[in-house]
From TrEMBL:
Gene Ontology MF, one: hydrolase activity
InterPro entries according to UniProt: Calcineurin-like_PHP_lpxH (IPR024654), CNP_phosphodiesterase-III (IPR050884), Metallo-depent_PP-like (IPR029052)
UniProt name for this protein: Cyclic nucleotide-binding protein
Keywords, in A-Z order: Hydrolase, Metal-binding
Top-level taxon: Bacteria
Family note: Belongs to the metallophosphoesterase superfamily. YfcE family.
Residue intervals of the Calcineurin-like phosphoesterase domain: 3-205
Length: 241
């Protein structure tokens, strides 16, 4: 059994401090083999928000895979052109396309937010090739996970992403961005979208994160919701691998 914690849309700078503290405790209690954060760790890519984000990420269970979200680029600033990813690289990770390997699992992170797009994302041919190349070298029995900020349906280049995911035999694709939790199988891959973890920007669904458990036959997604005094399990969705 593998356990993966999937957190998205912290939006530090527009967050609830009590929820941040209880989120760290709840994720830690799950003892995941990997913690995946699918972007928007900050609200407006300000230095003080990245400092807060670094503190939070350091307290989450390791190893950690973090990808860039649209809110992690400066919005209206010369930095958008001159140094779009600089603060994210400085405070979060210098690798915008990270790969993490743990026993039984290989995970690939993709940066789906080009600096010239304001909100919607894009996947390039090079990124699609990175999926097939990385998993081509993975152990046959490994769970294969792809993480990015934008769900496939909102991406330019979604056709090449889906083709690469199918070719590489990806089991699990995790994303954020919409603030609305979702789980659905797509052509043999289970697509899991996380809601808002700690921000006030919840789109009416409540603050949540995903606890994902994987065995040889089933991927089980437990949506964990903030209650004001802690976290409780909401929907539990089981999908065959």
């Amino acid at each position: 059994m593998l356990t993966v914690a999937h957190v998205s849309d912290l939006h530090l700078g527009a967050h609830d401090p009590d929820t941040v503290r209880s989120l760290i405790a709840d994720v830690t209690a799950a003892r995941p083999v990997l913690t995946v954060v699918t972007g928007d760790v900050t609200m407006r890519a300000r230095v003080r928000e990245f400092r807060q984000a670094r503190t939070v990420l350091d307290r989450l269970p390791q190893p950690l895979l973090v990808v860039l979200g649209n809110h992690d680029l400066p919005l209206i600033s010369p930095l958008r052109v001159l140094w779009p990813y600089g603060r994210f690289r400085t405070w979060i990770t210098s690798d915008l396309q990270p790969v993490v390997r743990v026993p039984g699992l290989t995970a690939v992170g993709l940066s789906s937010m080009p600096r010239w797009r304001w909100k919607d994302g894009r996947i390039t041919r090079r990124q699609a090739a990175r999926i097939t190349g990385t998993f081509g070298a993975a152990a046959e029995q490994d769970l294969r996970l792809v993480a990015l900020h934008h769900p496939p349906g909102s991406l330019a280049g979604r056709g090449r992403l889906r083709e690469a995911v199918r070719e590489a035999g990806v089991h699990l694709l995790v994303a954020g961005h919409t603030h609305i939790p979702d789980v659905r199988p797509e052509h043999g891959t289970v697509v899991v979208v996380a809601g808002t973890a700690t921000s006030h920007r919840t789109r009416g669904t409540g603050q949540s994160w995903n606890l994902i458990r994987i065995n040889s036959t089933t991927i089980t997604v437990c949506e964990r919701y903030a209650t004001g005094t802690g976290w409780s399990t909401g929907r539990v969705i089981k999908v065959s691998r």
